TrEMBL record:
The lineage of its organism: Eukaryota, Metazoa, Ecdysozoa, Arthropoda, Hexapoda. It comes from Euphydryas editha. SUPFAM superfamilies: Acyl-CoA N-acyltransferases (Nat). InterPro entries: Acyl_CoA_acyltransferase, GNAT_dom, GNPNAT1-like. This is Glucosamine 6-phosphate N-acetyltransferase. PANTHER family: GLUCOSAMINE 6-PHOSPHATE N-ACETYLTRANSFERASE. Its EC number is 2.3.1.4.
Length: 196
């Protein structure tokens, strides 16, 4: 089952074309899965790995993100506007895992693509907003969603993939092929007040 057939109405509109997920070769990842799973075969018939859909507003996507950080009180109109902006801009690959038994989003990660002049006008990937629902942890879903998005970056021609993470997650990301680069492993931020 895994990757569902892709028929579209307005509410099932995808943020990116889902067929690209079928091309991902999990043998290219240094991550080890036991048992073996992939985006196409996530390990349970009731799970599907797919791009974010407009209707995921009604499937708990924002509630899932709130397990990671503050999301605010986002209306359906705001969600639809942001979905349209991200889709039209291109370069946003929000990927989710859905529990189809209850029509709920249980995992998510975002790949953003930066257009560069360096490396012969190449593109760089950034891994953002990785989260798995608390009640589904221990099923390799964090590993599955990160590897899926990392392989997607490779498929899209990224020359590298970067992420920021808490110190306690370094070993997890190292097990998936990410490396701290000596002399270049600092994450610095400038935070601005949130608009009221």
């Amino acid at each position: 089952m895994g990757i569902e057939k892709y028929n579209q109405d307005e509410n099932s509109e995808y943020i990116y074309e889902p067929q690209i997920l079928q091309k991902l070769d999990f043998s290219k990842s240094p991550a080890k899965f036991n048992p073996q799973i992939s985006a196409a075969q996530p390990g349970e018939d009731w799970m599907v790995v797919r791009p974010l859909q407009r209707d995921d507003y009604n499937k708990g996507f924002l509630q899932l993100l709130s397990q990671l950080t503050s999301t605010g009180n986002i209306s359906r109109k705001q969600f639809d506007e942001r979905f349209t902006q991200m889709k039209n801009a291109g370069g946003y690959y929000v990927t989710v895992i859905e529990d189809k038994r209850i029509s709920q989003i249980i995992g998510a990660a975002t790949l953003t693509i930066e257009q560069k002049f360096i490396h012969n006008c190449s593109v760089r990937g950034r891994l953002e907003d990785v989260v798995v629902n608390d009640t589904y942890r221990g099923k390799q879903l964090g590993k599955l969603i990160v590897v899926t998005v990392s392989l997607l970056a490779q498929e899209l021609g990224c020359y590298k993939m970067s992420l920021d993470c808490k110190d306690k997650l370094i070993k997890f990301y190292e097990s998936l092929g990410y490396k701290l680069e000596p002399g270049n492993s600092n994450a610095m931020n400038m935070r601005f007040e949130e608009p009221s």
